[in-house]
Amino acid sequence: ETGVTQSPTHLIKTRGQQVTLRCSSQSGHNTVSWYQQALGQGPQFIFQYYREEENGRGNFPPRFSGLQFPNYSSELNVNALELDDSALYLCASSLGSGAKNIQYFGAGTRLSVL
Amino acid sequence: GQQVMQIPQYQHVQEGEDFTTYCNSSTTLSNIQWYKQRPGGHPVFLIQLVKSGEVKKQKRLTFQFGEAKKNSSLHITATQTTDVGTYFCAGPPSGAGSYQLTFGKGTKLSVIP
């Protein structure tokens, strides 16, 4: 497949809790983007990390935060979980942050908030 | 903000029939990318089109990028059951520093054997 791995695959949390999702990028890729995909919708851009710095952000509140590590792996943290945060969270890695760089998606983490 | 719309939302076809999905952006795109997501799976990159009016083919799939770089289409000839899934278009707006991919809601294709 793509070489992008995400963990865990499934997660169940209750409202108000905090969650951390992890992503290992494909070898040689220095850019990681995170997306939220609600049921029946297209992926929605959360933010992108390039060389350990946030490189842009979609329309998501500050309780969605992230990190990128020196090995280019990344974390997505969501605080104060809400029911609407239930979704498939996708990580995509690319070689560079430019518009023409192809993004390769991991299998995702399915988060259920009860 | 930028919006990307896809029609139809759903398409049911008999195996062997052709299928087309259309994608329209509210802003000019730097490029257009197409992804396929199988049921229960994740988006898988199919192709990228960059030039105005570009047409690319992959076996039974034909991709087209409009002259104004605001619309695109994907046409599948003689569908097979392996074509089942949701097809998404996605593109960053044109302009310096624009890299954020905006996805359409996708077209879900069902193929009846």
What would a concise description of this structure say?
Chain A is mainly beta.
Structural notes for this entry:
The complex is a heterodimer of chains A (114) and B (113). Chain A has strands spanning 5-7, 10-13, 19-24, 31-37, 44-50, 53-57, 64-68, 74-78, 87-94, 104-105, 109-113. Chain A has 114 residues and is mainly β. In chain A, the strands form 2 sheets. In chain A, strands 2, 4, 5, 6, 9, 10 and 11 form a 7-stranded mixed sheet that branches. Chain A is globular. The relative contact order of chain A is 0.34. Chain B has 113 residues and is mainly β. In chain B, the strands form 2 sheets. In chain B, strands 2, 4, 5, 9, 10 and 11 form a 6-stranded mixed sheet that branches. A 5-stranded antiparallel sheet of chain B has the order 1-3-8-7-6, with no helix packed on it. Chain B is globular and about 45 Å long. The termini of chain B are far apart. The chains are: A mainly beta (114), B mainly beta (113). The A-B interface holds A 2, 33, 35, 40-45, 48, 55-56, 58-59, 88, 90, 97-108 and B 1, 4, 30-31, 33, 35, 41-45, 48, 50, 88, 90, 92, 94, 98-106.
